[in-house]
Amino acid sequence: MTSTSAPITTIVFDLGGVLIDWNPRYLYQKLIPNEQEMNRFLSTITTPDWNEEQDAGRTIAEGTALLVEKHPEHRELIEHFYGRWPEMLGGAIQGTVDVLTELRASGRYRLYALTNWSEETFPVALRQFEFLHWFEGIVVSGTEKSRKPFPDFYHTLFSRYAIEPGQALFIDDNERNIHAAQAVGMQTVHFQSAEQLRQELEQRGVLPTAQLSA
């Protein structure tokens, strides 16, 4: 948490890992029963770096073809990454959705989302999670052909929605993205759990402090 006296008018949420439980393991534990082999596949074949290229705008078809060409022996497992992508969604992180619900009900803040997400798979999430429609705007990396932690991606959010960075609070579970947000002038919370987020928002006066019952 960074300290600042600037008033918070806008709250910007990351989605995956903050509001939505997304994890390739939910799919691949069905496909590769041996956990050690599954972890090796996810860390050396369908790597986070490879996935982020699709998040940054590379098409699923191109990303899959490139990986199959490099690892033809794993063709079927690679193709399942996006072919069965919805099975990687574990559901909403309810504690954070509760926080978002309270922020929305307060009417005190403008609410946005800034997410690294493939343009081709994001519609699946939009259909599945009603709370995504509560935001005034969502900036999706795959649509913008850029992503966190690159500064231009944050500036797209600022310019599109007339956001003053110093009055915006950014919530993300990736420390790399938190540092990038701080570099462009945003206040931040490094998300670790819904409980920790609530406590930090209470400390900042963004949410009212819970009153203990007698």
Automatic annotation (TrEMBL):
Pfam families membership: Hydrolase
UniProt xrefs under InterPro entries: HAD-like_sf, HAD-SF_hydro_IA, HAD_sf
Superkingdom as given in the UniProt entry: Bacteria
PANTHER family membership: ALPHA-D-GLUCOSE 1-PHOSPHATE PHOSPHATASE, FLAVIN MONONUCLEOTIDE HYDROLASE 1, CHLOROPLATIC
Protein name, UniProt field: HAD family phosphatase
Species whose genome carries this gene: Hymenobacter nitidus
